Please model this.
Amino acid sequence: MTTRYTRDHEWIRLDGDVAVVGITGYAQEQLGDIVYVELPEPGQALKKGSEFCVVESVKAASEVYAPISGEVVEVNAALGNQPGTVNESPEGDGWLVRLKPADKAEIDGLMDADAYAAFLETI
Amino acid sequence: MADITSDDLRETPLAALHRELGARMVPFAGYAMPVQYPTGIIAEHNQVRTAAGLFDVSHMGQALLVGPDHETTARALEALAPGDFLGLGFGKERYSLLLTEDGGIIDDLMVTRPLDPDLDGTLMLVVNAARKEIDYADLNARLPKSVRLEPREDRALLALQGPEAATALARHIDDLGEPGFMTARPAILDGVPVELFRSGYTGEDGFEISLDADKAEAVARAVLAEPEVGPIGLGARDSLRLEAGLCLYGHDIDVTTTPVEADLLFAIPKRRREEGGFPGADHILRQIAEGPGRKRVGLRLDGRAPAREGAAIRELSGAHLGSVTSGGFGPTVGGPIAMGYVDAAFAEPGTALAIEVRGRDLPATVVALPFVPNRYFRKPKT
Model:
């Protein structure tokens, strides 16, 4: 399954019926050393574009926005003790939440890797 | 994420070197400054705690106060700041505060009497970058005619900090010896005349090096070439000073805070407390006698979530006590730390409080400052 990206530097990837969400390599690099991740509760309903998570670096706190609407089915609890995993593996072990999409088609409306790379060139 | 534009920003003499080293440049006090290098803030922080790091602090304001003799210059500054400059020895450096008539803090600064008796009547000042214009206008307005302010815009300032700073520097200064903490002297660094201060803003041993701006890059490159030394940005400078319990102007202190509230009484020595004669003395001396209504304290949060500047500090019952003035993650502490003001009755270390972060009250405890014990150089007793 391909990974899709938002202009707010989140990524989302379908894994069966569930979508995995995290922040991009570009986002973690801009934030710098991540020292705390505030995750939502499983069961929480997210609306596309709503703030659902806060990632804190040494310097500042940054909100993470839901790429699509859906329900949180799992959070990456390992980040509680190892928030730096988001820096080391932002699109792998540093995932934030798994969502049950309200409408899978919302994912297709997001940028693919090439479009996101082109978008980064414009920043 | 905010966009960074370089419009209208001033640069230090090391701007090209910062970019060459891969620094991320951000606006700070009107200057483009390195916030971090590719290794990142935590690695840079640890570099300074365990070895040595070089900071560019050329944005800070360096100036001379020049009068006919030491007594005249010292008395002129004593009328504006509560330090004992009259009694300052040759080559001695002091932390001090420019005060308003209400006892508020216009700026904090370093004041040094040159080692060379031929320069008697001169005091060397280092003030905050963001306050230079205000400080200089205030000094020009309040100094007597016999003492003049000479800003030194042609000077750069480097800070070499960390337990191995002296070892690294000794390879570039033949007769470095063991200058004491808070002393200053001229030196020759790789053939370049510098003024060397044994002081800093990290809680570690280290030096601050004032030199001609056009020599700064060569000196910085030579010092960075030492195996103990890495480049350090403003991000780690902030986390290091916070762990050391040191105030950042405009955050932990400003014109609305007094030295008593800010717990900076060490900057008002005995003679000045007895004699007064500095701006705001009535208010400040009354606060010393009666105790301030509020006090700057150190705070530890129980969990991992950092509390940032502006976060409300509350009594466990919910009553508002003050707010966080500096807060973040302490890499050496290994958790969130903060400083802020609370009602004096809640300033005792061990007091349990709550700090509001994103709408939730997180448990926190008042702790003694500094968070990390300082390791300033002390001469071995002989």
